[in-house]
Each structure stands twice: as structure tokens, then as C-alpha cells.
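ok here's the first one, seq then C-alpha cells
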Amino acid sequence: MPNVSGRPLKRFSLFRKIAIGSWTSVGDPSVYGSLEVDMEAALAYLKAYREATGKRLTVTHLVAKAMGQVLYDHPDANALLRWNRIFLRDEVVVFMQVAMQDEASGKADLSGLTIRNPHQKSLGEILEEVEDKARRVRERRDPSLERTRGIFKYLPHMVLNDFLKLVAFLSYDLNLDLSWAGMPKDPFGAVMITNIGSLGLDEAYVPLIPYSRVPLFLALGAVREVPKVRDGVICARRTMKIYATFDHRFLDGVQAAAMSRTLRDWLEAPEVHFGAISA
């Protein structure tokens, strides 16, 4: 008589397979926190941008550019660990998750793309780059990503943990470029952004992923209308919560608070920071 009755899952997405190989036991430096942002000005800015340009700018694009500036202003967060020493990155790289479908299981899957130095790019440039890369990811036309997916697709389950540890060791500790072997160069950057609100979720904290060596994860919740007090009067305001998970080896509460203020300032005063809208 088994302790727990069950049966093995036969078909699951590639993302699930990689996730299984990522963790072995609990024991990580995760710190969790959330930030509520008033989105009235940001939503008005997005609407005006779409009307002026005909292009679908989203909250995720705004956060990607704002986080580029946050990491530039706070270089201690734009870093990675190598041999237990913190190395500051020369580039600001932001990772954005992309929803797609796994062809093997037919289930929803997750992939992603990176934007390099978004703080130096306009919103229009970021929008076009994201659309182009996301299209290539969904249409399976990203060569490096497809090579990586091919490797993991046929990798035996018993070696997943050791394989991911080895790849992380070679890529980050030894600092080797493994693009020749089908592994993208610096594929994750220093912050990962996922829009859980677009999936119908209000709240979620993303776990640190050991092999990615990313110290900061942001999950963008759905925009909700909530009661707020302004000038002593209760009124309805549209707000969004941002759920953060960060590596305590890199950041502490003081640094996280300063970074949160910068992000809030950008989203609550978009014309000041993102610039005026032109057709």
C-alpha cells in the first residue's frame, strides 16, 4: 500500500521540465515585497500613445524601460555572483517573459526575450524590438532559443539538475560564451519581468531561479479600481501591484526602497520621465 497514491504525468511543457531541474531543496536568499502604484496617469499615457501612433504600447513596456533606468541608477542590483564575489554588469539587460504554446504537450508554455540597455532606447524602439523578438519566439524562428529547446527536449530527467548547474557554472562562474553549443549569451540579464495580470492573476511572487543568476524578479498584477483617499475624499483610483522577489545577497531593504521609489516615480509621472508623445 503506497504512502501517496498517484501516477506519473506523461505530457507536460518544456518549461515544466526545466523547472523540475532547477531546484532540489528549499534554501535560498529570497526576500519578497510588493509595491502599489497609482496607474491613472500611466493608463492615460498609454491611451494617448496608442491614439497618436497606432501602436499597442503596454504597461510591461513602460516597466521594462523604467527598470532599465532603475538598474542604471542602482548598479549594485545590476550584478551577478561569481566565485562568491559580486560583479557589476557592463550592460543593463532586462528579461521579459513571453507566453506561447508547447508543441509537444499542446499546453501553455513560457519563454522570453531580452532587451539590452532599455534606458538608452525610446519607448517606440523598445516596442518594436519586443514585438519582433516575441513574434520570432512564438513562430519558432529564434535560432538560439530553438537550439536550447532542442537540447532540453531530449535531455533525460535524471540529469536535469546536474546539467543546469553545469551550464550555470560554465556560463557565469567560468564566464564562457556557450553560444557555439546552442546556449544564448547572457540570456536572462539582471531582472526578469512577467505580467501576471495579463493571465488573469492578481497576485504572485516569482521564485528565484538558481541557474539564471538573476537577482531580481518582478510580477505585474492586474490593474484594479480600488477606493483611495485623496485630499480627504474617498474616490475610485486604478492601481496596480508589483510583486518583487530579490536576492538578499545583492540587495537589502534600503536599496529596494530606493529602487521602488524610482519605479513609482516613472509610472506615476510618465510624461516627465518617458517624454512627451509625438505621432
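and now the second one, same deal
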Amino acid sequence: MVLQIEAAMKRVVLLVIVLLGSILNIHAQDEKKPSPVTISAYADLYYSYDFSKPTNHARPSFIYSYNRHHEVNVNLGYVKVSYNTERVRANVALAAGTYMNANYAAEPGLLKNVLKANAGIKLSKKSNLWLDVGVFGSHLGVENPVGKDCWAMTRSMGADNSPYFETGVKLGYTSPNEQWFFSVLYLNGWQRITRPDGNSTPAFGTQITFKPSANITLNSSAFIGNDKPDSVKQMRYFHDFYGIFQLSKKWATTLGIDAGWEQKSKGSSEMNSWIVPLVLLRYTPTAKVALCGRAEYFGDENGVIIASGTPNGFKTWGFSANVDLNITSNVMWRNEVRTFSSMDDVFMKGNNMVSNNTAFTTSMVVAF
């Protein structure tokens, strides 16, 4: 069954690429009309030094981006083809890097390299109502895999341990004044392209975004579903809320909190829970320089998302500070110091378990 799904996805991706290529050729012949097709590329190269000096070059297991120690590597590199008209849109992005290796480990074959593969149609001539189908970015969280779009250089614990991508059907509506956005989603699961074997449970999502002014964004997103085989079904409920506030021309802050609940066992009315607050403070003294500080906490006593096997579970604080330099309009150099402090000894240092971990990461981002 998996091989059939993989083969079908290969055909879909190749078909979309061929169709977009044909459209590009057609519009290239008509110089009077701008082409609806755009091609873009992105590369985020990094070096990270973990002061715990892991011999296997792997950062702590709950880190799913910039997760290799003492080696030059690619976190995320992709080539994307997009097609946009008034009524139709589509995206295909094929990617590689340590981010892809970590987050797509459960996907078979070529699907491990599919960052995006989706198509949408506008359902109304008068209203901004779209139906999108395929693999697209997650509706959960304030951060995404593309580093240049995020204030902090590395991703937060909350972002790394909630979906970056999802597969399914999304119905989205934007109000005429663009202050409100609403969407409902039917999904294959919690960060999934293919469902787990033995799972027939649909997952659902919702998103509401409100922008009362150019300086304020408020977002509420939810997920409900089961990410395990039906024989051990455990329903998961997750809510993400964040607010982005432009305090002045140079200062901005993001406040967020994630909360999740999952059944302790199939059919149980008792729940295991976790909570993830986040604070980001950004200062941009000039157009070329940006500084960001981050404070975060991940409380997962029962190990639903991050299993530590320790008496208090995974209860960890994280702090980071980064400096970004925009060298040119499409090249950014980023540097970050990040430290974790846990209630229990959850980090490996040499042959010992310790409660702290610190790393320095530098990256060069190129986008065109």
C-alpha cells in the first residue's frame, strides 16, 4: 500500500511540474502579460557547536532543525515553482537538508523531499474563499522552517515539536478588509504526508487570525486527531495561540502559548497534558541589523511529545539571543547563542547526564 501511495505521489508531483513548465513556456511567449509562474530557491547553511561535544554529532533529540554538531551542513535548501492567477494557485517545492532528514523520517521514498505540493482554487468570484489540497505548511505556530521568515535563528522547542507541515484539504476565507482569516482543515494526521499503518482516524484543524491594525496580529489555531494505529487510538487535542505586536518602529514582541492533551490510553477519560509558553523580543536598529532574544519553556511531565524517562518528565527552560546582518537583499548572516536548563538530567555530556546544554550556531541564508 505504501509503495502504491508513493508511486501515486510521484506521478502527481511530476504531473504538476510538467504542467507548470508548460504554462511557463506558454506565458514566456507572450511578453505583454506577466507570467503567473515564479521560480524561487532557498538555502540555509549552518555550523553549530554544542559545548557538550556529542561524539555522534547529534544535538539533543528534541531538536529537529539545525541539529548537527561541529559540522558545516544545510538545514534547508529547496527549489520552488509557484503558479498564481486570480482563481487558481499551485506550489511544488522539493527540498533537502538536515531539517528534512529529521522531520520527514517517517515518510517513504521521494516523499521525504516534498516540502510543498499543493493546488488551490478560488470558489467565489466576489469573496476571497479558497479550497487548497495537498502538502502545505502547518496552520499551527508562529514559526516555520524557512529561517529568513523567523525572528530567532533556530526554531523554538514548541515549533520543533509540533507540526511544520500537513497534508489534506483546507478551506480558507479572508475578509474583504483583510483583518480576519478563517480556515478549517481535514488532515492525514500530526505532521504527516502518509498516515501511520493501521490508522483510519481523520484529523481536523481550525485557524482564526485577526489583524485589527498593521501593528497587531492575533492567532488561534487548533488540532484534533489520533496519530496512532486504531488498535491503540489516543485522541490528541492541541491549541496554539500567539500575538505579534509592533511596539514601535524598532521594537516588536511575540507572545505565544501552546497547550496539548492526549488520552492516557484508548477509551480513557483521563488525559496527559503539556504546555509551551514562548516570548520573543526583537530590536531592529537599522534596516540591515536585527537582534532577537527568546525565552521559552516546555513542560511535558508525562512524555507525550518529548519522552525523557526521568522522574519529573521533560520540564525545560530555553533562552537564546541572536544577531542578524542583512548583507544584501537576498543574503543574511545569522549568529545565535542558545542554552537549555532542565529540572532533571536529560542532556548527555560525555558519559554523564546533566541538566544543562549550550550551543553556538551561525548560518548563512541565501534566497532568490
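notes on #2: DSSP finds three helices and 18 strands in the chain. Residues 2-28 form the longest helix (27 residues).
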